[in-house]
Amino acid sequence: MKQSSDIQKIAFVGDYLPRKCGIATFTHDLCTSVATQYPSADCFVVPVNDTHQGYDYPSEARFEIEEQEIDSYRRAADFLNFANADVVSLQHEYGIFGGPAGSHVTRLLADLRMPVVTTLHTVLRDPSPDQRRVLRQIGEASARLVVMSERARTFLHEVYGIPEAKIDLIAHGIPDMPFVDPNFYKDQFGVEGKFVALTFGLLSPNKGIENMLRAMPAILKEIPGFVYIVLGATHPSLIREQGERYRISLERLAKDLGIKPNVSFHNRFVKIDELIEFLGMADIYVTPYLNPAQIVSGTLAYAFGCGKAVVSTPYWYAEELLAEGRGVLVPFGDSGALAREIIGLLRDEPRRHAMRKKAYMLGREMVWSHVAHLYVESFQRARRSLLDIPYKPLRVRTLAEQSMDLPGMRLEHLSRMTDSAGILQHAVYSIGCLAEGYCTDDNARAMLLTVMLEQLGQDQAIVHRLATRYAAFLDFAFDRARVRFRNFLGFDRRWIEETPSEDCQGRAIWALGACVARSRRRDFQFWASGLFDLALPSIAETTSPRTWAFGLLGVAFYLERFGGARPASQMRDLLTERLLERLDATAAPDWCWFEDRLAYDNAKLAHALISSARSGGDSKAGERGVEALRWLVGVQKSPTGCFRPIGSKGFYPRGGERARFDQQPIEAHATVSACIEAFHLTEDPFWIQQARVAFEWFLGGNDLGLDVYDAKTGGCCDGLHEDRLNLNQGAESTLAFLLSLAEMKLIESTASASRTPASG
Predict the structure, then answer these.
(1) Could you give all domains of the chain from N- to C-terminal order, each with its CATH number?
(2) pTM to 2 decimals?
(3) Whose CA is closest to 674, among 728, 594, 734, 582?
(4) Fewest Cβ atoms nearer than 10 Å: which of 88, 317, 319, 613?
(5) CA 273, CA 263: separation in Å to the nearest integer?
(6) Which residues are CB-neighbours of 758 under 8 A, at least 6 positions away?
(7) CB-based contacts of 248: which residues, under 8 Å, 6+ apart?
(8) How far is 518 from 511, CA to CA, in rounded Å?
(9) Rounded to the nearest 5 degrees, what angle is found at the Cα of 745, between the Cα atoms of 610 and 664?
(10) Which among 230, 227, 177 has a CA at the least distance from the CA of 202?
């Protein structure tokens, strides 16, 4: 029955068909169902693209978001505001949005001026710090949160602190399919007279299909006519990374097990009408998934609600949906149990049909026509609650509250400075200086930058070309006999130093750890992990606090990917202890620092302690790091409030005279990066303000009021003298700017809290 509502315009944001993924199907079905049940409402879609070419969307798609481009989220917010939508229905899963843990979506939410109802397709019990922070920000920015299971509701409240009154439990929608005898459809597929088991959905290794294949010989021994159908295309992201390797391995396994005549792979993404026919013919539906931490499964919801007898591993959603005899649960990875339960169900027809009937009856509450009404009720609650939301005032923000306009990411100068060996050290103005050759320090910084550029969705061909050269340089720089990185390489490709610097060891470890944690290329991750493991022990033999700090940053990245790695955890604890000992030995109320002078790359020392705490180390280290950084940003501030780094022309000895010049770009970058890390740890918007102040040094917010960044070339000047710029645009300075810009662009997607002016 068609309904009316006071909501006249609804925007649905998320993946959308014809993109091949479960959330795209969900968004399409939800939008279509609401539009069908409420024909007076204007329902339109803002899809998210994971490729630059996008998709051939239908007419209801009116604006497209580029997944990795943060500015696209701002533009989408402007579009939705001008479109005057009454409510936004956002589909959330970490992997469909850009930025760390999908943080770009918070940029969209921060600028919207209508209530948002967010459907959470993933709710983790043990989130990473980034995942926890992003979901909490989404919770704060959303008027209502929709989950699809009781367990998800519990996690939202207990793990993320979301008030229960803000959460709506709405089942995953399913098509309205009649309760039919599977034999009705079997002749269409040539399996008449046979028992059929089905698994459908995008194919990937976490689906556990191989365990079902290994159960087949035992099933066929008892039920020779048994057929197993696997329906679904390989997941697009897996195709991009590995091609059809996984599907081929499954087909090879079926051949090796001698079951190939009884297994059918349908490698395609089917539309709903065809899916209903596949579901209709199945006697048993199987989800042998490997990951228990799955809070919802659209494929299981479809099969269950259509009245299928289900055998599944006990992931969270299956445990809840199949309780009280509505299905059968078997242990993870247990092919014998799969075979045993499937044989039992196929031989016990009364039990199988009773299970089907239970599932089908409960499934009547899950059909899309009913689910659409529940969503509109949630939308209406969201609109009513808008009057009571103090964190989303409908007013024009002042300049102080607005996020700063960041320059575009220009890579021309970086590309000019990079040749087949790596990035050149120095430049004469904007011309690369061949005579000075290369160094590991700069190529490590450049490698780190390419990892961030991947996160920002920069041109993948350019980024990969650059990253490959920097990686090759680091690999060549590592002396496997001495287990050390060499630093200075002449243009003639000869190493020109006797003793490599300690700092280059730390910077290389830093870049490798970042590559392991954040690179999207599996081959780079494998390479970086192997070299990281070889190089890590050498850090313990160094004596420079900065080397310890650089190394500690790399270790923290590495532990982000491999949290249980003991050598890395032990190195983190060792380096943290050394830095704390240095701080304890020299700190005083008027000098809260690690050394008796402020020299170069100063903020990295505090940054490392904060990063150590965020990686699971001593929480007190994070507190001490934040305390030291707060002291440093106070020291590095001019009377007018702009960033004034310690000059390299004498530095700042304790009790002595501070050098105001030559001010170096690496100090601005070190401060930007450390302040952003402090924000991640504390969620205090003060640190975003301080990062902005330091970043504006590049753009004229300095003692001379001069732009250190050259927007014409894409390079950055080498420093600020007393009366002028150093107009050379070498690698260190250019990379300092580009790294700072990349970090500012990444944090902008998660810094909606910084819109409130900071105190202190």
Answers:
(1) 9-173+369-388 (3.40.50.2000), 183-363 (3.40.50.2000), 412-755 (1.50.10.10)
(2) 0.67
(3) 594
(4) 319
(5) 23
(6) 684, 685, 686, 687, 688, 689
(7) none
(8) 10
(9) 65
(10) 230
